[in-house]
Structures are given as C-alpha cells and as structure tokens.
Design brief:
This protein is of the alpha+beta class and 255 residues long. The protein has one domain. The chain is built from 8 helices and 12 strands. The N and C termini lie far apart (47 Å). The model has no long low-confidence stretch (mean pLDDT 86).
C-alpha cells in the first residue's frame, strides 16, 4: 500500500492564500472540534497500491488538474464561455456534453466516482467522517468494479456544476450525501467545480429527464456558487457553530 491522498495532492496548493496574501496556509473547518484554523495538513492514509494510484491518475486526476480553477485561470469555465448552452434558466445554464472532448467528460465522471469511492472506504481514525459511508456496500462494490475494470454503472447520473464566479476564494468541500429526488445525492466541490452525483433506480423523472433529454448520464451546468442555497446554508451553519482559532481569528479581529 502507498501513502495515498483522499483529495489529489495537486489540488492543495490552489487553496492556499493568494500571492498578494502571502500564500498563507489553507483554512480547515474541523467538524470534530467545531473549529476553523490554518493548516498545511493533507488528508492522506496508506490505502491504494501503485497500480490503483496510476489508474486514478491517468483516468481522472491528471485531466481534471487541467480543467479546475487556479489563481491564474479556470480552463473549464473558459471552455463554457465559447459554447452555446442547450438551455438557459434563471441563474443557470446547461451544456451538452457532446460539445466537449469525450476525454474531458469521461475523466470527470471517473474522477467523481473515484472521490466518492474513496469517501466510502477512507479510514478517518479519530476524526468525524462527514460522509458516513453513505455509499453502502453494494454501490461500493459497483464503484470499485467500474474504477478497476470499467464495468458499466447503471442508475448513476452526474451533474458537473461549474462556478461562473470563482473569485479568489477557491475551496475544497469533502463529499457529503443526502436524500434527494427519490434517490441519493452525493456531492463534493474541488476548485470551482461542484460534482453532484444522483444514484438510485427510483430517481424522480424531473431529474432523469434532464439527462435523457441530453442523451447522456452527464450534464454540465454553469451557476454562481456563491448565490446557491447550499452555499448560503453552509455559510450560515459555519457562522453559527464554528469557532475561529489561531491566525484566522487574528485576521478577523475588529471586523
């Protein structure tokens, strides 16, 4: 087994403070201590063999590293700006996956499956598991077989939600799961891209219709993440429950 990362190692450097801020350490919100503090610690454990590390890298992580947002650019957002949306709603746009290079969509789907599978099997030790092994043993096995052998996944749909307003506050939000649309919604965010994966054989038609209309199990959506209900709910919860410590607290004194 190798020293493996839960979130790709390459992503961590992009959640540090900007150069103007002195490239400060990322702020971690700890659900066990209900605190927020700066740390350079990364989520890592002995978990994957060298062959699996290579699979995860070449089938998903490597290409995602060329698409997510950084302080300098946001390649996936720039792609969308050059495309015509298939549907425009109030505060969102939907794009056909046929307009993308197949490798981009395949890599994004593989990447999302790999992160959710890692969430399921990760050993949190003393820390609180925010995901609570929500995938379950049956889907854990199906996800593993997809990752290793590319066995097809049925009743799995992925919405790739791109932030139209990434701003300076790039973040990583670890996977969580909740009941939604007659099934389960597994979500996480990495550097301006929110992955929403719907799983279940009894999903509501208002969800599955979006995917069947686009003749794909993957759609790409453009929204302003900072105006979303999930962001507002998370911000309100953090402000109410989390104690800011250390250098982070010093930065907020007098504000």
């Amino acid at each position: 087994m190798r020293d493996s990362h839960y979130i790709p190692k390459a992503a961590y450097k992009h959640v540090r403070g900007t150069k103007a801020e002195g490239s400060t350490s990322p702020v971690k919100i700890d659900f066990r201590t209900m605190s927020a503090s700066q740390t350079d610690a990364q989520f890592r454990r002995e978990m994957l063999c060298i062959d699996c590390e290579d699979l995860f890298s070449k089938n998903g992580e490597r290409r995602m590293g060329m698409l997510w947002a950084t302080e300098q650019s946001f390649p996936l957002l720039e792609m969308l700006k050059k495309m015509k949306p298939s549907h425009v709603g109030q505060g969102f746009e939907v794009y056909q996956t046929n307009d993308f290079a197949p490798a981009d969509i395949d890599s994004a789907f593989y990447f999302a499956v790999s992160i959710i599978w890692r969430a399921q099997v990760w050993d949190w030790g003393r820390d609180i598991d925010p995901y609570r092994r929500a995938l379950g043993e049956v889907w854990e096995s199906k996800f593993k077989n997809f990752l290793l052998y590319r066995q097809p996944l049925e009743n799995v749909y992925l919405s790739i939600n791109v932030n139209s307003n990434p701003g300076p506050g790039l973040a990583i939000v670890l996977p969580i799961c909740k009941r939604a649309a007659g099934g389960w919604l597994h979500s996480f965010t990495i550097l301006g891209i929110k992955f929403d994966m719907y799983i279940g054989d009894q999903l509501n038609t208002d969800i599955t219709h979006v995917f069947t209309y686009h003749d794909s199990t993957v759609v790409v959506v453009l929204t302003d993440h900072f105006k979303s209900q999930s962001f507002n709910d998370m911000s309100a919860w953090v402000n109410k429950n989390v104690v800011i410590k250390g250098k982070v607290a010093d930065r907020f004194k007098g504000k």
